[in-house]
């Protein structure tokens, strides 16, 4: 059976890279009838120092933005990762199948550890991510392009597990979009991806940004010195990123977005892009604000989601434990 699994770090109000690159695609898969397991990766967040109260607040906020984006918590399963112990338990066994050299070689680790004495959790980060999807026997994982290497490691861990303990898991396939949303770029430096950790807040648009802030950030977006609008991501990454954002926000093909840009300068076109983004994000922001005004409801929803997630994950972990000669519960 197909099962779609994905997760987001608890960054609170997600950015439009997260939204178009992952969240909205999860929502659309779910609307097409795919069984969706989606969670807030709060265990992963601890690979960087966290203030406990702040982490809790941002986890709840992230869940609110997922719901506001259209995730259906009744048809699917929505919860906080740390509420389902099977993730961490499977992570341990998978960690024993991974090698330190392989993990230390992954680009995200090398960037974040940067030669320093990094926490062990940072090295284990992708192993926990493998456990995250395998513990639901995921078949498909919608993510942005930056997560591909993690899925390659997952496939490798599946092979090693099968070799040691017999076949159990499908090899989860990454679901990458073909609409340019797999790698939304920074508005300030289009050679980089839009990222939650960029020190310049104008580099990203958050789902919590109001219309004025969205307009300001688009207006300040770095383009180039050619006034016309064209779509050429290699030669004109900044302008092309705007065309991509426009097409995603207005639900148009890039060609249709370009059609609307005909005769406009990039400065004039930015107004069109900002309008489209404001229109697409306003309902999400308003729904999220309404949900965040009801924290008790959110907590209850997540508790219910975690119970259902445990009902899916526990039997898979029990089978893993049996295969590995470990106690079942
Ligand atoms: P995170 O929280 O960094 O990002 C969440 C999702 O958003 C995508 N994304 C982007 N897509 C397009 N353009 C961008 N600029 C952009 N930035 C981020 C990411 O690819 C991701 O799909 N390790 C994961 C969280 C995770 C996970 C998992 C994902 C934990 N366990 C299991 C899938 C399955 C992460 O840090 O995502």
From TrEMBL:
Keywords for this protein: Aminoacyl-tRNA synthetase, ATP-binding, Ligase, Nucleotide-binding, Protein biosynthesis
UniProt protein name: tryptophan--tRNA ligase
GO molecular function terms noted in the UniProt entry: ATP binding; tryptophan-tRNA ligase activity
Highest taxon above the source species: Eukaryota
Basic and acidic residues composition-biased segments: 180-202
GO cellular component: mitochondrial matrix
Record GO biological process: mitochondrial tryptophanyl-tRNA aminoacylation
CDD domains in the record: TrpRS_core
Record keyword Aminoacyl-tRNA synthetase present: yes
NCBIfam families, A to Z: trpS (TIGR00233)
Sequence segments annotated as region (Disordered): 172-202
Homology family: Belongs to the class-I aminoacyl-tRNA synthetase family.
């Amino acid at each position: 059976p197909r099962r779609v699994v994905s997760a987001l770090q608890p960054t609170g109000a997600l950015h439009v890279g997260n939204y178009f690159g992952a969240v909205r695609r999860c929502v659309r898969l779910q609307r097409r009838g795919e069984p969706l397991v989606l969670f807030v990766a709060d265990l992963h967040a601890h690979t960087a120092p966290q203030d406990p109260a702040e982490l809790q607040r941002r986890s709840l906020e992230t869940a609110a933005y997922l719901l506001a984006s259209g995730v259906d918590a009744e048809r699917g399963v929505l919860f906080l990762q740390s509420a389902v112990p099977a993730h961490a338990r499977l992570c341990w066994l998978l960690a024993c199948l991974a090698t330190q050299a392989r993990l230390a070689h992954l680009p995200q680790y090398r960037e974040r550890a940067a030669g320093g004495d990094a926490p062990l959790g940072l090295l284990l980060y992708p192993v926990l991510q493998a456990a995250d999807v395998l513990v639901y026997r995921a078949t498909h994982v919608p993510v942005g392009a930056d997560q591909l290497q993690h899925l390659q490691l997952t496939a490798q861990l599946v092979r090693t597990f099968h070799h040691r303990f017999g076949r159990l898991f499908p090899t989860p396939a990454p679901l990458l979009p073909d609409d340019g949303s797999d790698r939304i770029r920074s508005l300030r430096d289009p050679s980089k991806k839009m990222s939650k950790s960029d020190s310049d807040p104008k580099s990203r648009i958050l789902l919590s940004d109001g219309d004025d802030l969205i307009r300001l950030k688009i207006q300040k977006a770095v383009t180039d010195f050619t006034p016309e609008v064209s779509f050429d991501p290699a030669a004109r990454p900044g302008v092309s990123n705007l065309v991509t954002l426009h097409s995603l926000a207005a639900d148009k093909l890039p060609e249709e977005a370009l059609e609307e840009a005909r005769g406009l300068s990039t400065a004039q076109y930015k107004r069109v892009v900002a309008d489209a983004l404001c229109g697409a994000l306003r309902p999400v922001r308003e729904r999220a604000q309404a949900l965040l005004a009801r924290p008790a409801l959110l907590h209850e929803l997540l508790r219910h989601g975690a119970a259902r997630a445990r009902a899916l994950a526990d039997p898979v972990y029990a089978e893993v434990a049996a295969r590995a000669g470990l106690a079942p519960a």
